[in-house]
Design brief:
Order of helices and strands: HHHEHEHEEHEHHHHHEEEEHHHHHHHE
Helix content: 40-55%
Strand content: 5-15%
Mean pLDDT: 76
Shape: elongated
Structural class: alpha/beta
């Protein structure tokens, strides 16, 4: 009866697309087609019999390995200042999740939250309460989240310190998205995050050629995206094997390094190699002037008073100084540990006074595609659109966010990205996200920051002169 109903649904175009009814009597080689179908069915039955003999359901070494190592993680004593580490287990297939669910629930005393189908509001709340470190009403009902890629995007799951890829999806972007659920910018919970990948054994790989299939699939995906959308490296000439090798690396290394990360890594390197130098910074005077060898004669003046301002003057340019960002001048001010300081030039003092006192525009000019500018554009759209009546109670808070981005710069990249991702086409979703931001940041967070800045009387000025010799 069920098969008959499916046929009727297909005729009504109610069954899923790509399902069609073929009339065998109209086939040119009807007998040959039926023969091949029967041979396939026979082969399939033989495979099922062999699988039954292996008793893989009751004797699954992969599941046993998973349970053993997850138990070790959950039983491990938390580090100082860190909570208990939770685990997220991803599978590309709903059937795999349904297969694992009862096994893991039994092994871990039902402390497993399973996402294998639809995501009702009640389950979303359970996810937030147990795995989102920024959620207000925290709970500890579950230690493990077993899920498909349904929640590989859009969820903050940073109470988990480990992602287990029970299988590797053929689309490599999925792996990056999975890890992104626990590696949240400005929402650090654990000092170290762990990524575990399950791969077929060499024997299994030889039998089913899964590695070759996966690598070729990723290569096809790469080509389909086109040369302007290379996933891993803008300069790469990818091969199928090369892409598969990349997906086995730490996903953090697959994404381009942003400027903040680059500078932080450089500073951490200096701290490790020369801790005394870093310690001596506390005793440095608030005004520092230094010259070094450069590609041209120019002057950088960096002013820190509440926030950072960067002024730049090229000596060969008759125009006045210009405002730049730290990223713009990073290459110009970079020096190695062994580089010797040079004497200031005869032009330094005259140029220094003009650059230091430059007040035409204290705000760095934002690039059109920068994260800050995108956030500004979204906020301006919401504030100026009178059609968003539901947002009237939030207008003051939205103006505060806008003022912060344009004048103070206290918001993290994570928060800026949340603002840029606000869906202005869905009013309910828009209100919900803005309410979350208001709750997390505080309705008057910027006023407190302003009061703090008023108390800052110390102005730090660093002048760096490049001299072309």
């Amino acid at each position: 009866m069920e098969d008959i109903k499916k046929v009727e649904d297909i005729k009504k175009n109610e069954y899923p697309k790509n399902h069609k009814i073929y009339e065998i009597n109209k086939f040119k080689d009807k007998e040959g087609f039926l023969k091949h179908i029967n041979e396939d069915l026979k082969l399939f039955e033989e495979i099922l019999d062999e699988l039954k003999m292996l008793d893989l359901v009751d004797n699954d070494p992969k599941v046993e390995c998973l349970i053993e190592h997850v138990k070790n993680v959950l039983e491990d004593k938390p580090r100082d200042g860190e909570p208990k580490r939770k685990v997220i287990i991803f599978s590309e297939y709903t059937d795999t999740v349904k297969y694992l669910a009862p096994i893991l629930e039994k092994a871990f005393d039902k402390r497993v939250l399973v996402v294998a189908g639809d995501l009702p509001t009640s389950k979303i709340k359970e996810i937030y309460k147990n795995f989102d470190a920024s959620y207000q009403k925290q709970e500890d009902t579950y230690d493990i989240l077993l899920t498909t890629d349904k929640i590989s995007e859009g969820f903050n799951l940073n109470r988990a310190g480990m992602v287990v890829n029970y299988d590797i999806p053929w689309n490599p972007v999925r792996v990056i998205q999975r890890v992104g659920r626990i590696n949240r910018i400005s929402k650090k919970v654990f000092d170290k995050l762990y990524i575990v990948n399950f791969f077929p054994t060499e024997k299994g790989s030889d039998l089913v050629q899964s590695r070759d299939i996966a690598s070729n699939k990723m290569f096809l995906i790469h080509n389909a995206l086109g040369e302007d959308a290379k996933i891993f490296d803008i300069d790469e000439e990818p091969s199928a094997a090369g892409l598969y090798k990349r997906i086995r690396q730490n996903p953090d290394s697959l994404e381009p390094e942003n400027f903040s990360t680059k500078v932080l890594k450089e500073f951490e390197k200096i701290k490790e190699e020369d801790p005394e130098l870093v310690q001596s910074l506390k005793d440095f005077p608030p005004r520092i002037k230094v010259a070094k060898k450069g590609e041209e004669d120019e002057l950088f003046v960096v002013i820190k008073k509440g926030r950072l301002f960067v002024h730049h003057k090229r000596y060969a340019d008759d125009n006045g100084p210009v405002v730049k960002t730290l990223e713009d001048i990073y290459k110009g001010i970079f020096a190695t540990k062994d580089e010797k300081a040079m004497p200031l030039s005869n032009r330094f003092w005259n140029e220094y006074e003009g650059v230091k006192d430059f007040r035409e525009d204290l705000k760095p000019r934002l690039k059109e595609n920068s994260l800050q500018q995108k956030a500004i554009n979204v906020l301006k759209t919401i504030i100026t659109n009178n059609g968003f009546e539901a947002l009237t109670p939030y207008k003051d808070f939205l103006r505060m966010l806008l003022e912060d981005i344009m004048d103070y710069g206290t918001l993290s990249d994570y928060t800026l990205r949340r603002i840029t991702n606000i869906n202005i086409k869905d009013t309910d979703e828009m209100v919900r996200e803005i309410e979350n931001l208001k709750t997390e940041l505080g309705a008057d967070y910027l006023y407190k920051e302003k009061d703090r800045l008023k108390e800052l009387t110390r102005e730090i000025i660093i002048a760096i002169e490049n001299r072309a010799m």
